[in-house]
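User: I'm writing a tutorial on reading structure tokens. Could you give me a worked example: one chain, its sequence, then its tokens, then a sentence or two explaining what the tokens reveal?
Assistant: Sure. Here is the example chain.
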Amino acid sequence: MKINFIDLQAQYKEYKDEIDSEVLEVFSSAQFIGGEKLNSLERNLSEYTGSKHSIGCSSGTDALLLALMALDIGVGDEVITTPFTFIATAEVIALLGAKSVFVDIDETSYNIDVTKIESAITKNTKAIIPVSLYGQCADMDAINAIADKHNIPVIEDACQSFGATQNGKKSCNLSTIGCTSFFPSKPLGAYGDGGAIFTNDDELASKMRMLLNHGQNERYKHKYIGINGRLDAVQAAVLGVKLKHFDKEVRLRDEIGTRYSDLLKGSDVITPNIAPQNKSVFAQYSVRVKDREAMIAKLSACGVPTAVHYPLPLHLQEAFKDLGYKEGDFPVSELVSKEIMSLPMSAYLSKEEQDFVVQTIKG
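And here are its predicted structure tokens:
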């Protein structure tokens, strides 16, 4: 059986008429930047998350960058985050001349260990960026409580968790600023790069809108040094269609993720642990296995694709060698990085395909 890791073609076929119509409207209008498609998407994103302000931008990476820029973070500042994430989380901190201060992860959720955050806070700490990894929110209530005590803003890196909830409240609306990605493989994916920023703070929202458009407060009047971080109208049109169907896909993802965990009971893999207050959107269905390379080879031989998110924690990456971390500094991140692997996952994964994946693992 040949299985897709993520079946974007099946999704396109289901929404093809709507997507084609919306995209052709953009082509006909020649309004390729901004316009009603973007305005409509932002209104609908706000309605979906409950966030006062939703701002479309060019990628999840730029969403994080813009959030830090809006908080005036720069040289000499420290930002607390996790080393077990995609590089973008810490990359944007470094791009602004600030320093990433890493905190190890919790071994059950793979999100930042909240019990270790407070001891990492110094007089230079200007933000905390928890990552809601694999589609499950970090413990945002506990993180916000620590941040409030020290008067530090929190940026949720929700690039993998749009659609997830914590205590019934949507990811992206759980902190000072929420940032997400609409990369094609994400739970809500565009047909190219895209992202969004969310906040309930009017001043931050206004500033981020200027920053993503070269710092302009009106045409050719620049209040800030900004970037070109706009979301294209074509991507906004695609996302607008997908968002209408998104609740159905979130439900299917939850059913498929839960079924995976049920079917894999008694196997040699460690399945995801979803906290009772959380609903995961299963951006990835990631398991841990002692002999990962052997398992990957076995699945590959049977036509089952896999991925590893992530094989080397950030504190051991050459790009961050100047931070001075070494092997052994974050043992949980290092352990998980050696064992983690992701299985095929999308709202379009059939039961037959899922059964085949599980039987191959157990066989």
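What the tokens reveal: The domain at 246-362 is CATH 3.90.1150.10 (Aspartate Aminotransferase, domain 1). Residues 82 and 102 are 5 Å apart (CA to CA).
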